[in-house]
Write a structure and sequence with these properties.
The chain is of the alpha+beta class. About 45% of the residues lie in helices and about 25% in strands. It has 15 helices and 18 strands. The longest helix has about 50 residues. The mean pLDDT is about 75.
Amino acid sequence: MNSSGSLAVNISTETGSFEVSLFSINEQSVLLTLEDRTGIKNLRRQKQVLDDAIKLIDHAHPGALFQVRRGTDNMMSLEFASPRLGEVMCIPGITVEDFVASIGDSQRHNLFETFRNCQDELMIRGEIESPKRYWKIMANILDRDENGTVFLGVLENSTARISQMNQLEYTTNFLRSITTNIPIGISISDIETRRYLYVNPELSHITGYSEEEFLTQGLALTKDKLLVDPEEDFFGRLDNLRSYFLSHRPPEDFAIKGIVRIRAKSGDIRVLNIIFRPLGKSDHPDYGKSFIHITEDITDKVSLEDQRRNDEIMLVQSNKMAELGEMASCLAHEINNPLSILTHLLEDLADKYSADEIFEKSFQTLERITKIVKALTSFARDTGDEGPGDEPVSLKQILDDTLLLCHNKLTNAHIEIDITGDLTLNPFINDTMLSQVLLNLINNSFDAIQDNTGEKHIRLAISTLKNKIQLSFSDSGAAPDVETSQKWFTPFYTSKPKGKGTRLGLTICKNLLEVAGGDIRPVAAKNTTFLITLPIWPNR
């Protein structure tokens, strides 16, 4: 016993914990009391367990834990705060008081009022100005008693997440702005469900169908209502597209391109250039499921190209008519001379010749007339729809027909024409195109040398180089400087006198040869010389 005459002993049994107290009354009497301490011990043990749990949660959770009591008078008191607050807010050394002070009056008032009015659970967000931090508090009611309500909450730093969300929102708005305002149709489809996931305004403008019609009707709208030839393009083969991507796994930059004709809602036919590109990573199981479609309306471009092509054909034909006009008087002589011979032969039938000889010369003369007319009509025909040439033609035949048209003119001007090389070669080119090129060059040479007092000649040397036929065309005229000869291929440039020629001859010659896979260029030499290149094999 102690000096006061009392003794306290704690006794633990399987049924509980007890405290036995002995008090001395006198020398013969002792007062014994027994107190059951099991409940207190359990509460202490529970408190310890809770404290340990809170510490574990505090270290494991990305936020900082705290405990707040709301008294019956609605006054707030902080019962516990994690020392990790500064670490969570990324502001070293910050305390609860620092945090409350840093959030500003309006946020602080809102925070306290939220706790005062909360009856279940709460969540509130705010920010710190300097340095810029975003925070979020989530709390639940832990206990209620006669002294008030206890909240257990967690304070999180949501700066990184909000920054990511802001960046994502900015990027989304930026991309939405691009896809909304770009003058190209953009859509995204899921080929498994055959639905459109996104359609931008430009695609609606091109087709005349609204975004809602695309989204509700899906790919059936494109195939059944838009496409003029639904079975002749990739829209008609969507059943095979998914399986192709699953089996082949093409690279992520793989794209399917094509030009399709559609009938817009208004009934107009439009020509579209479409690029299909898969979305996602090639190693993802859903690769080849969703596609982005980039659609460009090239109707006007195609119309302009068709118009340009038609204008070129008309220009070529006009140039040929001009060439024929210049040859008209010569052609009249070419036809009139054999006719005169035939007439005289028939008149002198009885006096000068035997019948057989007369008929032979008559048929030869008629054959010459036939060849001249045939060459003339062949040269004059419209070759706009024939293309550059799909089969070999006889180079000798082309030269014979072309020289037949200008033989009389060259003979009367005493211009000799000399052809050397292999005349058995057969270039892949439209015969009329090549005839027009040669005739234009001959006429240019005629204009340049017809009044010369010295030697007057035109020479054509034929050779081969690899898979090309080369024609070296030259005349006896003095060659200009290289710069001037290059200008000859410029439209409307000419060195001829005013009113002479079409000013388009060499330009058209170059265009005709390039279409057929050939070329023409001036060659530096003493006399005017051009090198013509023709394909031996077809230009596919």
